[in-house]
Design a protein that fits this description.
mainly alpha
Length: 130
């Protein structure tokens, strides 16, 4: 019984990591779209720089990662004990990287809202009055 509970606890922790990664991935996609549509920013990822605004961008950023994460989840359930620790480490690193990217997006959104857009409006008014 103890082994079953321990295995269930490992699966739940793993599942929560998968959900967090996918949520951070989706928020990265949404933040990127908002920032690109402002006209001030551009996508620096060469794979997504062209299709980010159309359906293929949605497939590349939302559907394919979902399928890959489901595959990883399936493979994890059959993993040996010695494989679990490295998998958790890789997932934790992925969460950390996505968290940093999302923090940057939030900072840019705040800067854009309170500084860049008012600054460009002020410059436009100054040029219009000249």
């Amino acid at each position: 019984m103890k082994d079953i509970l321990q295995k269930f606890a490992v699966w739940t922790i793993f599942d929560s990591r998968i959900i967090i990664i996918y949520a951070l991935n989706i928020s990265d996609y949404i933040f990127t779209l908002i920032l690109i549509q402002s006209g001030i920013f551009q996508e620096i990822n060469p794979i997504l720089s062209m299709p980010i605004n159309n359906f293929s961008g949605f497939i590349l950023k939302c559907i394919i990662p979902f399928i890959l994460l489901l595959y990883i989840r399936h493979r994890f359930r059959n993993a040996a004990e010695r494989q679990i620790k490295p998998i958790k480490y890789i997932l934790d690193c992925t969460i950390g990287i996505y968290a940093i990217i999302n923090i940057f997006h939030i900072c840019w959104l705040i800067l854009m809202t309170f500084y860049l857009i008012p600054l460009t409006e002020q410059i436009a008014l100054t040029l219009a009055n000249s």
